[in-house]
Amino acid sequence: MAKIKYFYNPNKLDFEKVGTNIWSIVLRVFGFLSASAVAGGIMVFVAYSFIDSPKEKALKRENEQYKVQIRYLNKKINDLGRAIAELKDRDANIYRAIFEAEPIEIKLGKAGSADKYRSLEGFDNTEELIALNKKVDELTIQVSAQSKSFDELSKLAKNKTEFLASIPAIQPISNKDLTRVASGYGYRIHPIFKTHKFHSGIDFTAPQGTPIYATGNGTVSLAENGNGYGNHVIVYHGFGYSSLYAHMSRIKARPGQKVKRGELIGYVGSTGTSTAPHVHYEVIKGSNKINPINYFFNDLTEEEYQAIRDIASREGQSFD
Ligand SMILES: [Zn+2]
Q1: What confidence category does residue 149 fall into, taking pLDDT thresholds of 50, 70 and 90?
Q2: 282 to each of 7, 178, 227, 243, 316, how far by Cα in Å?
């Protein structure tokens, strides 16, 4: 029910009813509607600007998930790349060197051509997606090349059972936790002369009396005390390979003796030019002293091989 309004008429000194004409009602209704519309508009604007609709929320969540997944994939792909690089390295440095096969060449081909990734253009994360896809394509090529190389090597290995049993393939002392490698092959500071001198083997430190083992099947070609090597043993493995074990406290093997891989040939000592008990170990191929690090493949996993390589490549002083 509408309220009845009065106004005070000073001429009549009385209250009189306010007359209501149709226009004032129309104006009032119109005013009210416009005010509501403006207020409603502002509210909707505020709501859309600051509060997400459930659909938007879901999309944002999805977007975040994609970002996390891309980051994860990226990491995985980088890990894979590293693993393949290690395999490649090991393949080129060890297996191919041992079997005297020519290194394989990996051609990268057209993995990086721009056309291939056109469908990925026009998104927020286009660059990231293209980079990711390029990496995957490159890895695919490398994996297939590597697998061809291993196929070839496995054929070579089948015909070389005797060869594989003979050549040096383990460490000369037990070194399960890899802490025994003290100095690697390469230029090192000589412990006595203090000069930069080529160190032609690997030094394994171990307590006096630790057993030393032949690293491959063969015949003891030398077992004597002499030179800077002190008490030392040389085993001839055939196929042009020999191994040398120096600074023994006591020699167990005798010249002409046939030995198997892992057989005891002497004990760790510090005879000859040596600063502390250790075994100086060399691998000789033909007339060259080569890096023994590539001849531990029988008793090391991929990770151990990597770790021992890192340790042996450190600069510093040898025990000689
Ligand atoms: Zn040494």
Answers
A1: confident
A2: 120, 18, 15, 6, 18
Please give the residue range of the domain that contains residue 217. 181-312
Are 23 and 110 in the same domain? no
* Residue 108 alpha carbon to ligand 1 centre in Å: 41
Residue 164 within a domain: no
Report CA(210)–ligand 1 centroid distance (Å).
17
Exposed, middle or buried: residue 188 (CB in 10 Å: 0-12, 13-18, 19+)? Answer: buried
Q: How far apart are CA 132 and CA 227, in angstroms?
A: 58
Q: What is the pLDDT of residues 10-67, one digit of tens each?
A: 888 888 777 667 888 888 889 999 999 999 999 888 888 888 888 888 998 988 888 8
> Is 174 inside a domain boundary?
no
What are the pLDDT digits (tens) for 177-225?
A: 888 998 999 999 888 888 889 999 999 999 999 999 999 999 999 999 9
Residue 165 counted as domain residue: no
CA 231 – ligand 1 centroid, Å: 13
CATH code of residue 285: 2.70.70.10
Token readout for 217 is 């099947």
In the predicted structure, residue 92 carries a pLDDT above the cut 80: no
- 232 closest CA partner among 206, 253, 211: 253
Helices 54-90/126-158 angle, 10° precision: 30
Count of domains in the chain? Answer: 3
| Gap from CA of 268 to ligand 1 centroid (Å) | 13
Give which of 148, 141, 122 is closest to 80, Cα–Cα.
141
Query: Is residue 99 domain-shared with residue 26, that is, in the same domain?
Result: no
